[in-house]
Amino acid sequence: MGEKSRVLFRLFGILDVTGEVVAMWILLALITIVALIVKFHLKERPGRFQNMIEAGVEYLDHFLGDILGEKKARKHFTFLSSLFIFILFANYTGLIPGVGLSDYVKAPTASLSVTVGLGVISFVFLQYVGLRHSVKGYFKRFISPMFFMLPLILLDEFIKPASLALRLFGNVFGEEMVTEELYHIFPIGIPVVMMVLSILFCYLQAMVFTMLTSIYLDEMTEEE
C-alpha cells in the first residue's frame, strides 16, 4: 500500500491512469447519474430516497450556514456541497471489500495526486471568489496591516491548499495502513472494528476539508 501506484495505461499518451483515477471516474459517474435521477424525478410527495437526499441537503445547508451565514452559504452551496460529497464517497470507496487489494481500483483520496488536485481546485475557487467579491479588497489584504507582511501572507495563501491536501491524504492513507497492518496481526475481529470506526472517520475528514475551505472562503469575502 505504501508503494507507488501502478500506471494502468496512458490517456492521450501523456496522462497516467492509475487505480485511484479509475475509482474516481466511476465515483463521478455514479454521483452524476444519481444527481440526474433526483433532478428529473422530484415529487411533491417524496419517497424514501428523495427524503434522504433532501435531509442531506438540509444538513449541509445548516452546516455551511453556521460558518458562512445563510447568504454566503446559499451562494457557494453548489461548490462546497459538491466538494463534501465527492470527498465523503471517495473516502468510503476504501471500505468496499476488495478495493485497494488490486491495482485496478483504489480509494481516490488515498492518493496524494487526488488530494493535491482537490487542494488546487479549492485554491483556484477561493482566488476567483475573492477577486469577484472585491478586486481592491483582494489585493489590499496582502499588504494589511503592513506592507512588509506581503511575503508571509503570500506564503500563507499557498500553505492553505497544501495543508488541506496533506491532511486529507495523511489521514486517509494512514487509516488504511493501520487497518491493513492490524488485519495481518489480528485477522479476526479487529479489522471489523476498524472498518466501523472508519465509517465515522471518513465522514469527519470530508467535514474538516469542507469546513476549512468554508472558513478560508469567509475570510476571503470579508467586508472591508
List keywords for this structure.
about 220 residues; mainly alpha; two-stranded antiparallel ribbon; 8 helices; globular
What can you tell me about this protein's structure?
The protein has 224 residues and is mostly helical. The protein is 72% helix and 3% strand. It has a two-stranded antiparallel sheet. It is globular and about 60 Å long. The mean pLDDT is 81.
* Bulk shape: globular
Poorly predicted segments: none
> For the report, how would you describe the main beta sheet?
2 strands, antiparallel
Pattern of helices and strands? EEHHHHHHHH
Helix/sheet category: mainly alpha
What's the tally of helices?
8
Count of distinct strands: 2
Overall mean confidence score, pLDDT: 81
Amount of helix: over 70%
Q: How many domains would you count in the coordinates?
A: 1
Strand-helix topology:
Elements: E1 9-11, E2 15-17, H1 19-40, H2 48-68, H3 70-75, H4 77-93, H5 112-133, H6 135-140, H7 150-185, H8 190-220
Antiparallel strand pairs: 1-2
Helix pairs in contact: 1-4, 4-8, 5-7, 5-8, 7-8
A few lines on this structure:
Helix content is 72%, strand content 3%. The chain is an all-alpha fold and 224 residues long. Helix 7 (150-185) runs antiparallel to helix 8 (190-220).
